[in-house]
């Protein structure tokens, strides 16, 4: 089969590699689409996270073409997506239901040790319906299933924060994860969502979902938050309930930290290039919760339902599609926040 192999910073080569065979409890899918994630961009730019020779891509979907004898009732021809990693089910975190923090799941996972989805075919090990593999309806827009994984990241972040419907939530950064958080907040009934990003195109995508969008080049984010909440206690500029950092921009976090109400929360969902300085005394005095969020637990199933029932559609997020031979163009497009929202690589497409 053909696959885009990462050979070092800035370099993919489309190569012929062996077709995968299903393990005893695995399946193989023909990949219809695989999304370009922010972590993929970091690897492509810097070489971080994986070694040369790795096939990247962990946001994927496709149709089953073969199954192992112990893959349960999964059938050839079903349109599916799947978790890119398999929790062990036995460590302390897994027993708590926090499978995203499994002790061993990321030691060798799809696109991190095992081949990823930027290829014509993909092997998914330990396939179990509605646990690791999720069927989606026929007739969906091409690549819809590839949105489930990043959407699950947003759903998990929102579930971790446990917002109420009357809360004021602020989303910093409207890349795929930030937009996933906006979708998850809207689906959970939160009525006041303030979202900011430098990209006009990404702000427009958030506005469609009902967010009040802020252009940081023309509007003061703190003023907008105060318009929604009023001033905070002890001369605080505002009093929002939760801030989701999906940008990793330290200056942006600094500006909104004083706007979080006493007992509110800062949810860190972005990967940061350097340590984040925090006014610890202010955090202590106001009892602000700082929560790190990574991956997803049962949230993957929730995200699959949201895509299956049309709550989130490909039209609402996908801005570009590229075939495998144009993967470098696809990564360049995803890196251009002014022009892109979500980029899909379609290994079997002839675009």
From TrEMBL:
**UniProt-listed SUPFAM superfamilies:** GroES-like, NAD(P)-binding Rossmann-fold domains
Q: Does the record bear Membrane in its keywords?
A: no
For this UniProt record, the keywords arranged alphabetically read as follows: Metal-binding, Oxidoreductase, Zinc
Where is the chain membrane-spanning?
Answer: none
Protein's UniProt keywords contain Metal-binding: yes
> Where is each Alcohol dehydrogenase-like C-terminal domain found?
177-308
Residue ranges of every copy of the Alcohol dehydrogenase-like N-terminal domain listed in the record = 26-127
| A Pfam entry, by short name | ADH_N
Molecular function terms, GO-annotated: oxidoreductase activity; zinc ion binding
The cross-references to InterPro entries, in alphabetical order and at most eight, read: ADH-like_C (IPR013149), ADH-like_N (IPR013154), ADH_Zn_CS (IPR002328), GroES-like_sf (IPR011032), NAD(P)-bd_dom_sf (IPR036291), Zn_alcohol_dh (IPR050129)
What cofactor does this one take? Zn(2+)
Record family assignment: Belongs to the zinc-containing alcohol dehydrogenase family.
Q: What is this protein called?
A: (R,R)-butanediol dehydrogenase/meso-butanediol dehydrogenase/diacetyl reductase
Task: State the organism of origin.
Answer: Ilumatobacter fluminis
């Amino acid at each position: 089969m053909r696959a885009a192999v990462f050979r070092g910073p800035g370099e993919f080569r489309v190569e012929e590699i062996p077709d995968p065979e299903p393990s005893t409890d695995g399946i193989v899918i023909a990949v219809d689409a695989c999304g370009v994630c922010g972590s993929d961009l970091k690897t492509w730019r810097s070489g971080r996270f994986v070694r040369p020779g790795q096939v990247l891509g962990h946001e994927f979907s496709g149709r089953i073409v073969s199954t192992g004898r112990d893959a349960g009732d999964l059938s050839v021809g079903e349109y599916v997506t799947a978790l890119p990693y398999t929790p062990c089910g036995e460590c302390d975190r897994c027993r708590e239901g926090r499978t995203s923090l499994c002790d061993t799941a990321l030691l060798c996972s799809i696109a991190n040790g095992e081949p990823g989805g930027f290829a014509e075919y993909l092997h998914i090990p330990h396939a179990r319906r509605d646990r690791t593999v999720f069927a989606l309806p026929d007739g969906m827009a091409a690549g819809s299933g590839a949105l489930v994984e990043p959407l699950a990241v947003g759903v998990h972040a929102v579930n971790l924060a446990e917002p109420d419907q009357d809360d004021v939530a602020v989303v910093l950064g409207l890349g795929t994860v930030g937009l996933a958080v906006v979708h998850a907040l809207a689906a959970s009934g939160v009525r006041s969502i303030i979202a900011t990003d430098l990209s006009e195109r990404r702000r427009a995508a958030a506005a469609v979902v009902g967010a009040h969008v802020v252009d940081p080049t023309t509007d003061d984010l703190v003023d907008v938050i105060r318009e929604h909440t009023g001033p905070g206690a002890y001369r605080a500029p505002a009093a929002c309930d939760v801030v989701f950092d999906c940008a990793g921009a330290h200056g942006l976090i600094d500006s909104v930290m004083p706007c979080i109400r006493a007992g509110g929360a800062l949810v860190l969902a972005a990967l940061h290039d350097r340590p984040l300085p925090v006014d610890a005394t202010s955090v202590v005095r106001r009892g602000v919760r700082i929560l790190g969020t990574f991956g997803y637990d049962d949230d993957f199933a929730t995200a699959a339902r949201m895509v299956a029932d049309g709550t989130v559609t490909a039209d609402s997020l996908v801005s570009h599609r590229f075939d495998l031979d144009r993967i470098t163009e696809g990564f360049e497009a995803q890196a251009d926040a002014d022009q892109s929202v979500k980029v899909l690589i379609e290994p079997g497409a002839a675009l």
